[in-house]
Design goal:
The structure holds three protein chains of three kinds. Chain A is 69% helix and 6% strand. By secondary structure, chain A is of the alpha/beta class. Chain A has a four-stranded mixed beta sheet with strand order 2-1-3-4. The longest helix of chain A is centred in the middle third of the chain and has 34 residues, at 172-205. Chain B is of the alpha/beta class. Chain B contains eleven helices and 14 strands. In chain B, strand 4 and strand 5 (66-67) form a beta hairpin. In chain B, helix 3 (94-103) packs parallel to helix 5 (138-150), helix 4 packs antiparallel against helix 5 (138-150) and helix 5 (138-150) runs parallel beside helix 6. By secondary structure, chain C is of the alpha/beta class. In chain C, 68% of the residues lie in helices and 6% in strands. In chain C, strands 2-1-3-4 form a four-stranded mixed beta sheet, sandwiched between helices. In chain C, helix 11 (275-299) packs parallel to helix 16. The longest helix of chain C is centred in the middle third of the chain and has 33 residues, at 121-153. The chains are: A alpha/beta, B alpha/beta, C alpha/beta. Chains in contact: A-C, B-C. At the A-C interface, helix 2, helix 4, strand 4, helix 6 and helix 7 of A face helix 2, helix 5, strand 4, helix 6 and helix 7 of C. Strand 4 of chain A pairs parallel with strand 5 of chain C.
Chain lengths: 380, 312, 395
């Protein structure tokens, strides 16, 4: 109890920095959600397109614009920030229709259209649409129809659609968001736990205080256990904050079985963070080094394991290295859950493996900590 | 004698508490002045005010006949300070630390190198020139701290408790160093709560308590303020109570204590006190082992003046 | 002055924590970036993906679809979109889909059906491509009808032979192959992972503030013991602070220089080719970081550890808002809360590099440089005002 009380006192003494860190990390987690785009559905997979029309909105020009409007998300963006919007993929495709578009077209000339493109999937999709329209239109123009007839024929042609059938009952969009949030949590959790727990431990591991503790009648293991529990309480609190936030931010996505399993997974990860933080805290001697260690460990595992950049975009050799880090197994579980349709013992088997490894990491860290701390019983 | 420092009506308040209360005193050329007082009595605050590190609420401070200000660089050139806490760069070696601080005063490189060598010799750090502060023991670190403060040969040096928690060898080294500096012409102001050091070192003492001067004067002057003139201790076994009360009734006797087989008798006036006591023991056939007489210490004086010990 | 400057330099260069933040950390982080992002832009390009087609009678009857799919599934064809597996029965295709071997399959009955497991980019492409083919069928049909009508007017009954149909189809097919007059005028500098490295530079600039902070601490009696000692020396505070701040600025610039070398030659980062402006921006950015450090050191009443913590937290927050942990963050903030990034030096620095890289004109770049300068000068002036105080209430 004494150790625990002292822990609370030390925590209280450092409350400013603890609160600052926690709030910033929470803020990171929340605001990062806002950047998540919903672009995985057919309906919303319409590319974002900006149409800059200099020609009169009549005849074929209007028809073209209407067509694009129907099949893309037409964006209205001020001229001054157009290029920014393109760079940051707020718009995928910018189409400039010059003032003699209709004239050129009707006279049988190939109309010139200037475009700016991000060159990604969405932009290709937009380009496909534009190309398609122009080709169809020019085919009918060459057949010698009047403008009116051309437009009718285009409509008739372009309304030819295929029927799409989606077999998976999964709400991928919702789960994608949940996974995105929980993947990012690996950064916040790791950074928060390691920073604050190390800060606490350094106070307890201070050379002079350690000497005093070593000669006291409390056993080393018991001492470590109480410290671990006290820190655990703190980590639990941090975890609860994130969980509550996830319910507020994600709503129904969290009430699915997959969401619940991701929550369990994040709990395992929190324990892993705690034990890792404990190990690092035992190794670190000075407060100055904490900040460095935290940033390298947290940012390193987040970048290498796919917390910031989706796992499927990481090069293979990076993922191989990432196998050595707990964050990898945590995120892997989330990724598996995200696309899992049926949840039963059989289908859950593949996620038991990474979850088990996460637990293994925790145990490993605890054993290592105890080993190191018992080695350290002799000073110097 | 020239007045080096003149402090007039110095008052410093901090958070509603008066840390230094209308203090006035002077420091004369060539002396070692001891500022004596228990912890929290305002010694360090007084020094920091004199050095213009702290803002003052009232009063005037004159050094070398000029008013002391933060920008009084001509005055600062001649001052050396040894702070209570060790103030050195962890990143620099012993000699680089001294070189840096000396360099703030002495522009001429050749002169500076000579001064640095002398400072190192004075504190006895010759073997540790290339060490980093982290590698030094507490005592050696204090010596480095001193070398950094005095290497530029200042005319006026402040020592703020330089010997707190220092091993006896370093302590002697430090005290001898201060004497040497004084002999070479430096005026020294020295705060401490170690009585023995003051008696050993200081020409004049100012006793502070709660931000006020309680007494000041030479050591002898202070001692004469006390009623006690002589203190006689006797090792004697099984003394009867009647005898103790007997002695207490004598005319010059201030007090009598008997504890653990040691009898302490203090006298107000002192002539032939020892002889009288020995005579009395002979008459009453009391056997005693050792007997010695001593003058009262400053601690006794202090106790009488403030009602508390210096190290409280 | 020179004496203080040299020794300031010495102490800074011996301080392991400072060296870590200004030299090692940015390089470590930069390495992480390049590891994580090396694939990202490649994976954004269109790639070929597997589909299946149920090769039933209905499909056999649609010559145009058959031909076009064959074309789009042909290996080595520059227009190749798919690798196609033809199956006899729908169940086979369904199995392949379930296994995840294919992204979707086409099944023709009365109408064309595309069956997929989930929605996504590949599925959309399959959908669009199939629709294009259906549309081509339509065009051929329209053309033939028109011909029939026109011939009827002239009293001729047109006989639509297989040959005639194929001729029309190939005619329209050729027309569809023709390149349309679409001209791409986008900048070639669209690699947005560059932003990551720009935020890295911004971070390094701001971390330099920790150096500035230390140099202030060394000289103030109410911040450190050494500061007390220095304050009683006959050197004016202005000179003391100026020389140590100058030395910390130099160390900071040197750290930045190393980072540039590392990112340019090892990580192959493209900063554009306007060298002078890059140096100017790095310089001004460092100044902003330095002034932030000085400002915090002067105004925040806390011990050095807390101050360093605050400095690091602020820097990371600034970099987060400029897109370090998610590139679109900066754009989101820029469009929704522009004021935040207007006063966020990390964002100004990032934006400066971005505008050098992406824009041809320099207006925006100068805007960034001036706002950074303003930021730095404002903080420096405020700090100087505070530092002018010579004595303290308590130390």
């Amino acid at each position: 109890m004494t150790v625990f009380k002292t822990f609370l006192k030390v925590l209280n003494k450092n409350k400013f920095i603890v609160i600052l860190y926690s709030v910033i990390l929470l803020f990171f987690g929340v605001s990062n959600m806002q950047t998540q785009e919903e672009n995985t559905n057919f309906i919303s997979s319409k590319p974002d397109v900006l149409l800059v029309v200099s020609d009169e909105l009549e005849g074929i020009t209007k028809h073209f614009v209407d067509y694009m409007e129907k099949h893309t998300n037409r964006k209205e963006i001020e001229e001054s920030v157009r290029d920014d919007a393109l760079f940051y993929r707020d718009v995928n495709y910018i189409i400039f229709i010059n003032d003699h578009f209709r004239e050129d077209f009707l006279s049988g000339e190939q109309p010139n259209i200037e475009v700016k493109s991000t060159g990604d999937y969405q932009a290709s999709l937009a380009e496909l649409l534009v190309n398609n329209y122009l080709k169809v239109a020019s085919v009918y123009q060459k057949m010698g129809f009047t403008e009116e007839e051309i437009m009718q024929n285009i409509d008739k042609t372009l309304e030819k659609q295929v029927v799409m059938e989606v077999t998976s009952p999964l709400d991928t969009d919702q789960l994608e968001k949940v996974a995105f949030y929980y993947n990012f949590l690996s950064y916040s959790m790791l950074a928060g736990c390691v920073y604050i727990i190390c800060l606490m431990l350094v106070s307890f591991q201070n050379e002079k205080i350690r000497k005093r503790t070593i000669i006291s009648s409390m056993s080393d293991r018991k001492y470590n256990r109480i410290l671990l529990l006290s820190n655990g309480l703190f980590a639990l609190l941090l975890w609860l904050c994130y969980v509550v936030l996830s319910f507020i931010l994600l709503g129904e996505g969290m009430f699915s079985r997959q969401g619940f399993l991701m929550l369990i997974n994040s709990f395992l990860f929190t324990i892993c963070c705690l034990t890792l933080a404990f190990l690092l805290g035992t190794l670190i001697r000075s407060k100055n080094t904490i900040n460095g260690i935290v940033n390298v460990v947290a940012l390193g595992s987040s970048f290498l394991c796919g917390a910031f950049v989706p796992m499927e975009w990481l090069p293979n050799f990076v993922l191989k290295i990432a196998h050595l880090l707990p964050s990898y197994w945590y995120i892997k579980t989330n990724e598996l859950l995200k696309t899992m349709e049926i949840i039963n013992i059989e289908s859950l088997k593949p996620i038991f493996y990474p979850m088990g490894i996460l637990c293994f990491f925790s145990v490993f860290f605890v054993i290592l900590t105890n080993y190191i701390s018992s080695k350290r019983r002799n000073i110097g | 004698m020239n007045k080096i420092i003149e402090v007039a009506n110095l008052t410093k308040k901090y958070k509603g508490k008066t840390a230094v209360d209308a203090l006035s005193f002077s420091v004369f050329e060539g002396e070692i002045l001891g500022l004596l007082g228990p912890n929290g009595s305002g010694k360090s605050t007084t020094i920091n005010c004199i050095l213009s590190l702290l803002s003052i609420d009232e009063g005037k401070i004159t050094i070398f006949g000029q008013e002391m200000k933060p920008s009084a660089y001509e005055i600062k050139k001649e001052i050396g300070v040894v702070f209570q806490d060790v103030a050195v760069f962890d990143e620099l070696t012993v000699i680089d630390n001294i070189r840096y601080f000396c360099g703030l005063y002495i522009k001429d490189k050749k002169v500076r190198e000579v001064y640095i060598e002398e400072a190192i010799q004075l504190v006895g750090l010759e073997e540790f020139k290339k060490y980093y502060p982290k590698q030094l023991s507490g005592g050696l670190l204090r010596r480095l701290n001193i070398a950094c403060g005095i290497s530029h040969k200042p005319k006026l040096i402040f020592f703020d408790e330089p010997t707190v928690a220092v091993d006896p060898q370093s302590r002697n080294n430090i005290l001898d160093g201060m004497k040497t500096l004084n002999k070479n012409g430096a005026t020294i102001i020295y705060t401490t709560h170690y009585m023995e050091e003051v008696e050993f070192l200081c020409h004049r003492v100012i006793i502070l308590d709660k931000g006020k001067i309680i007494e000041s004067g030479t050591i002898d002057e202070l001692k004469s303020l006390s009623n006690i003139e002589e203190k006689i201790s006797v090792e004697v076994n099984n003394l009867k109570k009647s005898i103790i009360s007997d002695i207490a009734k004598w005319e010059q006797v201030e007090s009598v204590d008997y504890e653990n087989g040691i009898l302490i008798v203090t006298y107000q006036k002192g002539k032939n006190n020892l002889a009288g006591l020995i005579h009395y023991f002979k008459e009453n056939r009391i056997e005693y082992n050792k007997i010695f007489s001593e003058r009262p210490t400053l601690n006794d004086v202090f106790l009488e003046l403030t009602g508390k010990g210096l190290r409280d | 002055m020179f004496h203080q400057f040299i020794y300031s330099l010495k102490t800074l260069c011996k301080n392991k924590m400072l060296l870590f933040w200004t030299f090692a950390f940015p390089i470590i982080l930069g390495t992480f970036f390049s590891l994580a992002f090396s694939n990202i832009e490649n994976s954004e390009k269109l790639d070929v993906f597997p589909i299946a087609i149920v090769n039933n009678d209905a499909f056999q009857n649609r010559k145009i679809l058959q031909e076009t799919f064959k074309n789009l599934g042909e290996e080595g064809n520059e227009n190749q979109l798919f690798t196609i597996t033809y199956v006899e029965k729908e169940e086979e295709a369904a199995n392949l889909l379930e296994e995840g071997t294919i992204e979707g399959y086409l099944h023709l009955e009365e109408e064309a059906k595309v069956i997929v497991k989930k929605s996504g980019i590949h599925q959309t492409i399959l959908k669009v491509a199939t629709e294009e083919m259906l549309q081509m069928e339509m065009m051929v049909q329209v053309d033939i009808e028109k011909e029939i009508q026109e011939n009827l007017k002239n009293g001729i009954a047109l006989d639509v032979t297989q040959e005639y149909f194929e001729q029309i189809a190939s005619n329209i097919g050729h027309q569809l192959q023709e390149k349309m007059g679409i001209k791409d005028i986008s900048s070639s500098h669209l690699s947005y992972t560059m932003i990551e490295f720009y935020t890295l530079i911004a971070m390094t600039c701001l971390y330099g503030g920790i150096l500035g902070m230390t140099s202030i601490h060394q000289n103030l009696p109410n911040k450190s013991e050494v500061g007390k000692r220095v304050s009683v020396s006959p050197i004016s505070k202005g000179k003391l602070i100026f020389s140590s701040v100058l030395s910390s600025f130099l160390v900071q610039l040197f750290g930045l220089f190393l980072l540039f070398l590392y990112t340019i030659f090892v990580l192959k980062v493209d900063y554009g080719n306007k060298l002078f402006f890059i140096i100017l921006l790095a310089f001004v950015g460092s100044l902003a970081g330095l002034s932030l450090g000085i400002f915090i050191a002067t105004f925040l009443k806390a011990n050095e550890n807390v101050k360093t913590g605050v400095m690091i937290a602020m820097t990371m927050l600034g970099c987060f808002l400029s897109g370090m942990m998610g590139i679109t963050m900066k754009y989101i903030v820029d469009t929704h809360l522009p004021i935040v990034n207007k006063i966020n030096p990390a964002s100004r620095i990032t934006d400066g590099f971005y505008s050098l890289y992406y824009y041809d004109t320099l207006d925006r770049f100068y805007g960034n440089v001036f706002s950074l300068l303003f930021f730095a000068l404002l903080l420096l002036l405020l700090s100087m005002y505070q530092l002018r105080r010579q004595t303290y209430d308590s130390i």
